[in-house]
Amino acid sequence: xxxxxxxxxxxxxxxxxxxxxxxxxxxxxxxxxxxxxxxxxxxxxxxxxxxxxxxxxxxxxxxxxxxxxxxxxxxxxxxxxxxxxxxxxxxxxxxxxxxxxxxxxxxxxxxx
Length: 112
Fold this sequence. Notes:
Elements: H1 2-20, H2 24-46, H3 68-99
Helix pairs in contact: 1-2, 2-3
């Protein structure tokens, strides 16, 4: 139960960073922290104490295996999160090139 609480704390730290910070880079780091906490939570859902790998052989029974679906979901969210962070950093670099700042309050107009 304490691991789920730690995921909540990690999510709260990331959410605080996204909501309260004005620097684009800090916001992107907050989004990364949120993604990491969600991945950790997904993995904890499929965890079993003394569980074994979800590889089924002919002479083994299906007993005490960890859930492979949560592992696949976590891998998928890692790939999607990596693409999201990559696009956000690219946009932050372009915004810095155009306006010369990472502060979102100083960026008044975004012209294309």
